[in-house]
Amino acid sequence: MCFWHIIRYEIGEVMSGHTFKKYDISETEQSKLNNNFSYHPVKTDELQEHRYQEIRRSAKEFAELLYQFCPPSRELSLAITNLEQVMFWANASIARNE
Questions:
Q1: How far apart are CA 94 and CA 98, in angstroms?
Q2: I want to staple 87 with a disulfide (CB 3.0 to 4.6 A). Which of 12, 48, 59, 66 is the partner?
Q3: What does the pLDDT average to over 85-95?
Q4: DSSP 37
């Protein structure tokens, strides 16, 4: 039994004394889950690799601009973190959907 099943069992069924409502997963949602939680190897597609690099380069360039224009602060750290997320999700959109 995997970790999640143990936690789900202990919290949902043993600790509360009764089971919790479970919803069906549609075929469309199951397909999305299968895709989103699968390994997507980098393709040997030169154009795909170029787009990954361009996204990373552009994100780094914008991060450098933020460091130059913004004072050191929690807000700057959050901006950089969110920019990293933008870069990640943009690259993931290529990996997952091509």
A1: 6
A2: 59
A3: 93
A4: T
**6-52: pLDDT as tens digits:** 555 555 554 556 667 778 888 999 998 888 888 777 777 888 889 99
CB contact set of 48 (below 8 Å; sequence gap of 6+): 42, 94, 98
Q: What is the pTM of this model?
A: 0.66
Phi, psi at 89, each rounded to 5°: -65, -35
Give yes or no for a contact between 27 and 34, defined as CB atoms under 8 angstroms apart.
Answer: no
